[in-house]
Design a protein that fits this description.
The chain is globular and about 65 Å long. Helices cover about 40% and strands about 15% of the residues. It has eight helices and six strands, in the order H-H-H-H-E-E-H-E-H-H-E-E-E-H. The protein has three domains: about 90 residues, no CATH class; about 45 residues, no CATH class; about 100 residues, no CATH class. The strands form two sheets. Strands 3-6-5-4 form a four-stranded antiparallel sheet. A two-stranded antiparallel sheet has the order 1-2. The model has no long low-confidence stretch (mean pLDDT about 85). With about 240 residues, it is α+β, with helices and mostly antiparallel strands.
Length: about 240
């Protein structure tokens, strides 16, 4: 958001006062970030005095300002959902990562890796996983996966083959997708598998039907070691997913 304010090409298309609005949005995001950082510090044992020293205020002011946010954080673990005004829709009380940690870890790892100067496959999730080595070694790689619409499975496979620089022969990916067996997502040993051998990489795909929705297929892709390729594959799951 802050980076967008540095771009001048569209200044003539921005309404009067628009840049101030964008700057205010950055300020609001920064204020939320500070509150979340304070919650983190309290969770790991920092005192109000230690936190206040870095915020340029006294401990009593810090406690008064951020205690409501800390208390909301704690209450959300006891009641992770609340109903909206209509009484029919559930509203998340915790950050989305708490409800789907694998997807969020994957997305954050991919995004952060594009911006950091050091090489770390899991800059966000590496220290959060139970299988992380005690000596701080890099956590093992994990698969890219998601649910896609059954009607888009052939197109997904075709694009994966293109990303891997597979032989551009007359492979009918729609026919390959249609020939998958009727496996169930809960039967992990019975998933269909298909390997795309490319000149740049070899992608291994596994598939299973989503038991509660005939229109969806669970897909897992492994073998993408290049960070840009991983980001492109992850984007495909968003494009061909049920919420696209």
């Amino acid at each position: 958001m802050a980076g967008n304010l540095a771009i001048t090409r569209f200044d003539d298309q921005t309404g009067l006062g628009g840049r101030a609005s964008e700057a205010a949005a950055v300020r609001e995001s920064a204020e939320r970030l500070v509150a979340e950082a304070v919650i983190f510090e309290r969770e790991r044992g920092s005192s109000w005095e230690e936190i206040a020293g870095y915020l340029g205020i006294d401990a009593d002011s810090a406690r008064e300002r951020f205690t409501p946010a800390v208390e909301r954080w704690h209450r959300a673990f006891e009641e992770p959902y609340r109903l909206d005004e209509s009484g029919r829709k559930r509203v998340l009380q915790l950050p989305f990562a708490a409800y789907d940690p694998e997807s969020v870890c994957r997305l954050l790892d991919l995004r952060v890796r594009l911006r950091v100067y050091f090489n770390d496959e899991h800059p966000v999730s590496g220290a959060l996983r139970s299988d992380s080595a005690a000596d701080g070694a890099q956590a093992p790689d994990y698969d890219l996966g998601g649910r896609v619409m059954r009607e888009d499975l052939g197109r997904l496979m075709r694009l994966l083959a293109r990303f891997a620089h597979a032989d551009g022969g007359p492979t009918d990916w729609d026919a390959v997708a249609a020939g998958l067996r009727g496996t169930d997502e809960d039967e992990l040993d019975a998933w269909d598998a298909y390997v795309v051998e490319g000149t740049s990489t070899s992608l291994r795909m596994r598939f299973a039907n989503v038991s509660r929705d005939d229109g969806l297929v669970e897909v897992v892709v492994s073998g993408a070691t290049d960070r840009e390729l991983r980001l492109r594959i992850d984007t495909l799951f968003t494009v061909f997913g049920p919420d696209a």
